Amino acid sequence: MNPQPLQIRLSWSDPATGQRREPILAVPIALGREFAQMPDELRGLRVSRILLNSAEVSRYHVSIDEDSGTLVVIDQNSQNGTFINGQRQARSVLGNGDTLQIGPYQITISFLASSSISTIAFHPDTDLPDPRLVATPSSDNFPPLVFGQSQVALQDLHATGLPVEEVDYAAIGAGLGSFFWVDLLRICGVKIDRIAALGMEEKPYARYKRLCMNSQIPLHERLRSNSDSCPDNIWGWPSYALREVWHDLLKGKVSDALGYLWQVFAEPDFAQTYTPRSGNVFDSIDRESKRIGWEQMFRHGSVRAIRKTSDGRYVLAYSRRRSSTGSPDRAFLIAPYLQLATGYPAIQFLPDLKAYREKTGDFESVVNAYEQHDRVYQHLEQHGGTVLIRGRGIVASRIVQRIYEARQKNKQISLLHLMRSAKPQGNKFGSSQRQVENHYEFQPFNWPKACWGGELREMLEKADPEGRKRLLAHWGGTTTADRRDWKRIVQQGVNEGWYQITFGEVEKVERDDTQNRTVTYIQEKGLKGQIRLEADFIIDATGLDAHVTASPLLGDLVNHYNLPLHDNGRLVVANDFEVTDMRNQRGRIYAAGAITLGGPYAAVDSFLGLQYAALCAVDSLAAVQAPRLERLNALSSLWQWLKWATNKSP
Asked: Does the residue 103 lie in any domain?
């Protein structure tokens, strides 16, 4: 009688949709981009094949199998490699709770309680992996049971035998929001060894850059960001515009340099608003990261849970990078001051499009603007075709521009733009009203400029919760950048007939196999009949999901401590961005970014908004005399700016 095949659980959130998947699969397992390229049998056993839809994943990327009583992962000569807990490996033993990274997919390995698999143990005398010793894993018991309590005792953490590290300040996310906070802490005198930033990617802009590139904003294109909103420089001077002016003057491009100056001094009434190139922003962050010692403060780890400690601090339970052999490396980090800056928990994906992909398995024709989909434009340039776009914000406008560029190579490309309803006029507040053309609402940035540091910011800060809700509704809404070249593209498309705008509610999306096309059925506004919209590709450009419960970490925190949320599903924070319901004696937790919208600030997910949240939080820490932190004054601020200008460590 053949033994029962080993079964394990693979857990991941789809990088495009945010959908959580946790299949239980029998070993051997194959993962890749194409079913046909993965084997259906290994060692005489049927293979569990998993499709990962990303161009960063090879057709047959990796296999997971049992070998001599251990679970191993074997890279199949993939182009982009396979990473185990952050380290690239061609072949590696897998432990319970390890993280397997394949392209944009972060997959956690879990052994089932009844699993008979074993892993190599550590020798008690040498503390090194010894293949002669075998450790039998149990079910996933991390974080430990003590995390079920509202406060965790330090002795209980040490009793687990896992590493326990203590710092003064911990940033969770290690993205741009964390970078701003850590940068300011360093400028205010905090030493490198007292700060930790936990995340899955070392570059603080890694995810943001990936989203930009996927949504067709390459390094030479301009972001929707202000000239003096400088992620690498809290003083905002010299601004990106001045830096670009100086760079062009050195190259003899006098007219270009003067054009940037004209934009800055004449915007927005007489000139188009200046915005920086994305590549310049990333380069400047690299420079500042090196200056402040980001690499030494970064911890590669996936935070699983946050709890208050009995001594007035907080403990983070996280899985961190480990060697290629040995038991999974879990650890605890304790700090009295935390910052939550986890970014958008997930990519938003329209329910009818998600249902279509689940039903048909078609990941080629229906894509999200934030997932890698260059193949769509390559196909259009070679063969032509029709694209249907959903959404009408800044991402949709960039997709329209990219399709316009494809039409310069192939005129047999047409574009359908499906909007729920017409937009005859823009939002109005006081005497101001946004401009609308072709049902797009225009604004230089995603919020009115006075929301950053003008009267609107002060108005929102002073308002009560209901007042804030009304103000945000007036100022918000879906807008796109007020750029002349893009307006010209849209108007040209409408005039020439290759760009059509349609209004209606989607009833269902199906596939017509006879024509090899997608069919979207809509109920057109004001009509009783059903309309068919046929397209070769559908691109969902509706944005990102910022509901905190979409994040397993934040969802656990909200549920465990019964934290209040706004009606929009975001965290409730004070004017200094503290999550006051998480206060623990001297301990403080602050938040930043999209997860705080609904509080005292509107543009929370902008560069300047993240900097403002960091300034408020650090100023609050200085007020409670947080250790090793010195409040900036005129002289110390000037001294630190000179250090920044000369690229000296704080």
From this structure: yes
Contact 94, 71 (CB under 8 A): yes
Residues 429 and 304 in one domain: no
What CATH number does the domain containing 622 carry? Answer: 3.50.50.60
Overall average pLDDT of the 2-22 stretch: 73
Is residue 295 in some structural domain? Answer: yes
Three-state secondary-structure class, residue 383: helix
The count of domains in the chain is 4
- Residues near 434 by beta carbon (within 8 Å), at least 6 away in sequence: 426, 427, 428, 441, 442, 443, 479
Answer with the one of 541, 570, 590 that is the final residue of a domain.
541
The 3-state DSSP class for residue 45 equals: strand
Angle separating helix axes 240-250 and 278-292, nearest 10 degrees: 100
- Give the pLDDT score at 130: 47
Q: What is the pLDDT of residues 67-98, one digit of tens each?
A: 877 889 999 999 999 999 888 899 988 887 78
DSSP letters for 572-593: ---TT-B-GGG-BTTBEEEE-S
Shared domain check, 563 and 536: no
Same structural domain, 296 and 168 = yes
Q: Is residue 24 a contact partner of residue 6, using CB atoms and an 8 Å limit?
A: no
Regarding beta strands 499-512 and 413-419, do their DSSP bridges make them parallel or antiparallel, or are they unpaired? parallel
Structure token digits, residue 369 = 């603007």
The answer on 510 and 411 residing in a single domain is yes
Which pLDDT belongs to residue 87? Answer: 85
Q: Give the Cα separation of 552 and 317 in Å (integer).
A: 13
* Percent of the residues in the chain that have a pLDDT greater than 90, as a whole number: 61
287/284 Cα distance (integer angstroms): 5
Backbone angles phi, psi at 453, to 5 degrees: -150, 15
Domain range for 427 is 351-443+479-541
| pLDDT band of 322, cuts 50, 70, 90 | low
CA torsion angle 445 450 456 462 (round to 10): 100
Task: Specify if 406 maps to a domain.
Answer: yes
Residue with tokens 């038991």: 327
Which residue in this structure is represented by tokens 């359908």? 416
CATH number at residue 31: 2.60.200.20
519 DSSP 8-state letter: E
Mean pLDDT of 300-329: 81
Rounded-to-integer distance, Cα 103 and Cα 111, Å: 23
Examine the domain organization and report whether 156 and 300 are in the same domain.
yes
Q: In terms of domains, do 594 and 512 share one? A: no
Q: Report the pLDDT value the prediction gives residue 132, as an integer from 0 to 100.
A: 46
452: in domain: no
Cβ-contact 112, 275 below 8 angstroms: no
**Tokens in use for 475?**
């100022």
Closest CA to 366 of 518, 507, 545: 518
pTM over 0.70: yes
Regarding whether 498 and 357 lie in a shared domain, the answer is yes
Tokens of 484: 């002349």
Per residue in 96-105, pLDDT tens?
A: 778 899 998 9
Domain boundary among 110, 139, 170: 110
Contact 199, 86 (CB under 8 A): no
Q: Taking a C-beta distance cutoff of 8 angstroms, is the pair 105, 13 a contact?
A: no
What is the chain's mean pLDDT, rounded? 89
Same domain, residue pair 433 and 554: no
